[in-house]
Design a protein that fits this description.
This protein is an alpha+beta fold. The chain contains 16 helices and 18 strands. The strands form four sheets. It has a five-stranded antiparallel beta sheet. It has a five-stranded antiparallel beta sheet with strand order 7-6-10-9-8, with helices on both faces. The chain has a five-stranded mixed beta sheet with strand order 12-14-15-17-16, with helices on one face. A hairpin with a 5-residue loop joins strand 9 (about 325-335) and strand 10 (about 340-350). The radius of gyration is 61 Å and the shape is elongated.
Length: about 600
């Protein structure tokens, strides 16, 4: 059974107590009436009357005891009521303290929050705010409380704030807007996300609006950057997917068996190998290797992977159908943000056609080298065969000039001897060119006298220059060494080629030979030889193609001045063979200056 509440039991006890007192009063009243009317009866009661009186006395005693018990019960109720009241007061005090703590925590959160926090009443009057809002508006907190937006900001902004408040109050729902605002102490506008919520009191009555303003400038910039990065990644993914080159990404480890697993291939991989993406994902790149895959290239790849280095190789792989193909492959390691290498990116290109072309080109080069060798042998042989009868012709012409001849005959014989000499020069140049081209020309390094060699060149050229009525000058450095180490014959050949060309292409004017010492790189000493003429000069186009075989300005010059265009290329190759350099300075119609520099060592 459920026990009755203390208050109900007390009500029942009070009712019994009232009945007890009423009975007690009735009994006493009855006794007094009885005694007052017949006082003499008391002494002559019978036994029944005495028994009734005894019962009444017992009942009175019982009722008195019940009353005392009820009084005790009432004291207990009062004590319990006091204890219950005290407990309720303690609970109320604890709840009040917790509420104060929560209010303080809310206040602390508002103060430390970087967001702008405020509360307004229905009239737009600020009831509370935190320090960030005060700094944003440029006031103290106590200067804001009790004011409206129209007291703190411009009318336009205040009206905008008020409209947002009104929208929140009308809809009774949270509203969010994004607005650009410039803080009171700032120069640049910031993007704020402003959230406003209706505020209700304890009985559900709408009392105002609470707002939170969050600076999302950096977040929006990060979002924009992320969107741009994602867009760029999508474009990169599309580019990688549509590349003609193969792109493969594999795990960084293991290097040895079973090998790293493929995690990505592009469309070009499928087109080249015949494998689908589903067939190779999770497989090792070794599935493309076969019998002819070069072991040395695989070793290079393994060593590079073990050292986390990039590597470039060319090797043979195999398609799904078994066809072999050549590929050019670059492998690059990729690290994560902590510097740990996680993947390998391999960019591959099908070079089967290039390898076939290279093989064909090697065959062509071999055939060309063989043809060049045969040509050189032919030129060498034919030059010797032509030199013998030509020496006879020149010798006979020289002997004939020593006999008695008429002036006309002497002129004819002189032409024969001159043409023979020119022909011999052509033969010599052809033979030298053939030797230089085949790499069979060897230089001598012997001591020789420089000035006698230069004098011999001057005598030969002076005669040719005088025949064309051209002035010839020579200017030699006084500090030139007397004796040098080198190939005197080849040096003289270079000088004579340049001097002959100067005479050939100069119709009038002069020719000058200049020899001087110049400083080389470091402590090296160079001799510079220059041949200056006043001839036809060279255009830019002709000068660019001058040092090429069988080139002599243009075709009209070849017909006009003769020659086969080998002189300068022979001279250039000889100078290069002697570790020197050659060049020309010229302007069309203003002559030429050919020069070369040689590192010739003086002997004591």
């Amino acid at each position: 059974m459920k026990s009755q509440p203390l208050s109900s039991r007390m009500n029942q006890a009070m009712l019994v107590l009232m009945v007890f007192f009423m009975g007690l009063i009735g009994l006493v009243s009855w006794e007094f009436l009885a005694w007052g009317s017949v006082p003499q009866v008391w002494q002559h009661h019978n036994e029944v009357t005495q028994a009734m009186h005894a019962a009444q006395i017992l009942l009175a005693i019982a009722l008195l005891g019940l009353g005392l018990w009820l009084l005790s019960l009432q004291r207990q109720w009062r004590q319990a009521s006091l204890q219950e009241t005290h407990l309720l007061e303690q609970q109320l005090s604890a709840k009040s303290r917790r509420l104060d703590t929560v209010n303080q925590q809310i206040t602390d959160i508002m103060e430390v929050s970087p967001d702008l926090v405020w509360v307004k009443d229905l009239g737009g009057v600020y009831q509370s705010c935190n320090l960030p809002l005060a700094r944003y508006l440029g006031f103290e907190i106590n200067q804001i409380i009790g004011k409206t937006d129209f007291d703190l900001v411009s009318p336009e902004r205040a009206q905008s704030f008020r409209e947002h408040d009104r929208q929140t109050l009308v809809t009774c729902k949270a509203t969010i807007v994004e607005e650009l605002h410039t803080p009171a102490m700032g120069d640049l506008p910031l993007l704020f996300e402003i959230t406003k919520n209706p505020v209700w009191d304890a009985v559900g009555k709408l009392t105002g609006v609470q707002g939170i303003g969050r600076d999302i400038t950096q977040r929006r910039a990060a979002q924009d950057a992320l969107r741009a990065a994602n867009a760029q990644l999508r474009m990169l993914d599309l580019c990688i997917a549509k590349l003609n080159d193969v792109v493969m990404i594999a795990e960084a480890e293991p290097f040895d068996l079973p090998g790293s697993r493929i995690v990505f291939v592009n469309d070009a991989f499928e087109r080249l190998t015949g494998y689908s993406r589903a067939e190779v994902l999770g497989m090792s790149p070794r599935l493309l290797q076969g019998p002819k895959t070069q072991r040395n290239q695989l070793d290079r790849i393994r060593q590079a992977l073990a050292a986390w280095q990039s590597v470039h190789v060319e090797l043979i792989n195999y398609k799904k159908n078994g066809d072999e193909f050549w590929k050019e492959m670059d492998i690059v390691p990729v690290a994560d943000g902590k510097g740990w290498f996680t993947h390998w990116i391999s960019v591959q290109r099908d070079i089967t056609a290039r390898k076939a072309a290279e093989a064909e080109m090697l065959q062509i080069c071999d055939r060309a080298l063989e043809a060049s060798r045969l040509k050189s042998e032919f030129l060498s042989s034919i030059s010797h065969e032509m030199r013998t009868p030509m020496n006879v012709v020149i010798g006979m012409a020289t002997l004939l000039l020593g006999t008695e001849l008429s002036p006309k005959q002497k002129m004819f014989v002189s032409h024969i001897a001159s043409a023979g000499q020119d022909y011999m020069q052509v033969i010599d140049k052809s033979l030298d060119f053939s030797k230089l081209e085949s790499g069979k020309l060897a230089l001598d390094c012997l001591p020789f006298e420089l000035r006698p060699m230069l004098l011999a060149c001057e005598l030969l050229i002076t005669a040719k220059a005088q025949a064309k009525k051209i002035e010839f000058y020579s200017r030699l450095d006084a500090n030139l060494p007397q004796q040098l180490m080198g190939d005197e014959r080849r040096l003289q050949q270079c000088l004579l080629i340049l001097l002959d060309n100067a005479v050939k292409f100069t119709a009038s004017g002069s020719i000058e030979l200049v020899v001087q010492g110049v400083a080389g790189e470091g402590s090296a000493a160079l001799l510079r030889f220059e041949v200056q003429d006043s001839g036809i000069g060279l255009t830019d186009v002709v000068r660019e193609r001058l040092f090429h075989p069988f080139v002599q300005g243009d075709g009209s010059l070849t017909r006009r001045y003769g020659g086969i265009g080998l002189g300068l290329i022979v001279c250039q190759q000889l100078v290069t063979l002697m570790q020197g350099r050659i060049g020309v300075d010229s302007t069309a119609g203003q002559g030429c200056r050919f020069w070369f520099e040689l590192p010739l060592r003086a002997t004591p």
